Amino acid sequence: MIVDITSWKHVFKLDPDKTLSDEHLERICTSGTHGIIVGGSTGVTYDNTVDLLARIRQFEVPCVLEVSHRDAIVPGFDLYLIPVVLNSKDPKWIVGQHAEVLKEYGAIMDWEEVLAEGYVILNPDSDAARLTNAETTVDVQDVEAYARIAEHLFHMPIFYIEYSGTFGDMELVRQMRRTLRNTQLFYGGGIDNQEKAQAAAAAADTIVVGNIVYDDLDAALQTLYVVGLERKQYV
Amino acid sequence: MIVDITSWKHVFKLDPDKTLSDEHLERICTSGTHGIIVGGSTGVTYDNTVDLLARIRQFEVPCVLEVSHRDAIVPGFDLYLIPVVLNSKDPKWIVGQHAEVLKEYGAIMDWEEVLAEGYVILNPDSDAARLTNAETTVDVQDVEAYARIAEHLFHMPIFYIEYSGTFGDMELVRQMRRTLRNTQLFYGGGIDNQEKAQAAAAAADTIVVGNIVYDDLDAALQTLYVVGLERKQYV
Fold it and tell me: pLDDT-based confidence at A234, cuts 50/70/90?
């Protein structure tokens, strides 16, 4: 199945390194969300990724892998998202690791299933920013320049503003929505209630709800209301 | 005029920082070459770029700017090629300088006139490699991985193998031609006679003839024979 992400308004991001009960996983997968992104910054392995995929595959929800570790590239996902960290100070997060992976798998990859994501990571205190050595002291104009690189130089289908762990500047996010023409704008970070989900959904094309799934499932599920998705499990 | 580069087999690259007589410039511009790329690694300024453009514009040959300095972005070229040095160890040559330029000009750019080039610079002793801190100790598989990044992750119209100043490994270039599907393969470096032009033209889609223009114009013009271009000036 080739998934069309352009209709995605809301997705959950699940971390293979974190624990989720079967009951909670079922509530997430049958929530009406448009998709599940599997991915995380640390502790992601082939085994825990396979395991999570197999559990999600009991349900009909589209499931895509955000590839962050060469050792955790598991076949069987609907799509593979490849992060390119545009504000990293280390080229290995822009092209280096990608080249290593492609050196190994490039000849057998199905490029129809691969989407590049132009990432900008903006919370300096996050694992993601530390791991990728991201330059987080940027202003709206800097992020806008990255958005244009993603769309016009690299022709990426996704531009992803990641505040990982904290709720970001929605005025900045809205500005990127005005700057981008065709590239789809993902926003992730700190969406832990309905109000924040509403603000983020008004600014970005697609909102990504992550950590709150593990901290407060009911609050996580309430983020679906604001994008007009039915919570099928309660029908 | 929007130039279609896909038919380009042969181009000359002229350096604004080097001296060329009017007679020699005329012979180049009326040679039958498919285009002139204006660009250089060092000493390129707004003034010497404007000057060279104005002189080339006396002739009908397509003329494009390879942007390498933010201060030397001159309006009036047919196209703007933006180098992205995929094997640079410094992110400023991959996205950093691009972001700086786009921060200033992004809102007014005509993206129809802009083409990104995925560059791999392979001669460690060249100005270009030193300037960009290029990782030149790479094998065929590494370069193939960069080619796939250029084509499939970044959707670039051009992949450019640059041996700047020395004639490269044509077996490697041929392998990239086999790896790429739609992205156009440029080869530049050390083409200073007909035999090398023939070998390069058999391996790449487009050959770029540079330095020899300044050292031996007759030899430079002979590189046109091998790609079946008429030397109009002698008709």
Answer: very low
A-interface mutation test, from B70, B88, B94, B95, most A Cβ less than 10 A away: B95
Nearest to A77 by CA among A46, A31, A104, A103: A46
Whether the CB of A128 is below 8 Å from some CB of chain B: the reply is no
Phi, psi of A65 (to 5 degrees): -105, 130
Q: If you compute the radius of gyration of chain A from its CA atoms, what whole number of angstroms results?
A: 17
Over residues A72-104, the pLDDT tens digits come to 899 999 999 999 999 999 999 999 999 999 998
Please judge whether A153 and B94 are an interchain contact, meaning their C-beta atoms are less than 8 angstroms apart.
no
Let me know the angle formed at the C-alpha of A96 by A93 and A101, rounded to the nearest 5 degrees. Answer: 105
In this structure, what DSSP letter does residue A134 have?
Answer: B
The total domain count for chain B is: 1
Please report the sign of the dihedral spanned by the C-alpha atoms of residue B202, residue B204, residue B207, residue B211: negative
Residue B117 resides in a domain = yes
Domain-located, residue A184: yes
Task: Say if B94 is an interface residue toward chain A (CB within 8 Å).
Answer: yes
Which residues span the domain enclosing B158? 8-225
Residue A235: DSSP 8-state: -
Write the pLDDT tens digit of every residue in A18-38: 999 999 999 999 999 999 999
Are A91 and A133 within 8 A, CB to CB? Answer: no
CA distance B111 to A183: 14
Q: Domain with A220 in it: what CATH number?
A: 3.20.20.390
Q: What is the pTM of this model?
A: 0.93
> Does the distance separating the beta carbons of A98 and B153 come in below 8 Å?
yes
Asked if residue A60 is part of any domain, the answer here is yes
Q: Which two tokens stand for residue A131?
A: 């791991």
Q: Tell me which residue of A171, A168, A215 sits closest to A187, measured CA to CA.
A: A168
**Is residue B188 included in any domain, yes or no?**
yes
The ipTM (two decimal places) reads 0.92
CB contact under 8 A, A114 and B152: yes
Neighbours of B13 (CB within 10 A): 19
d(Cα B189, Cα B134) in Å, to the nearest integer?
16
Answer whether A145 sits within 8 Å of B94, measured CB to CB.
no
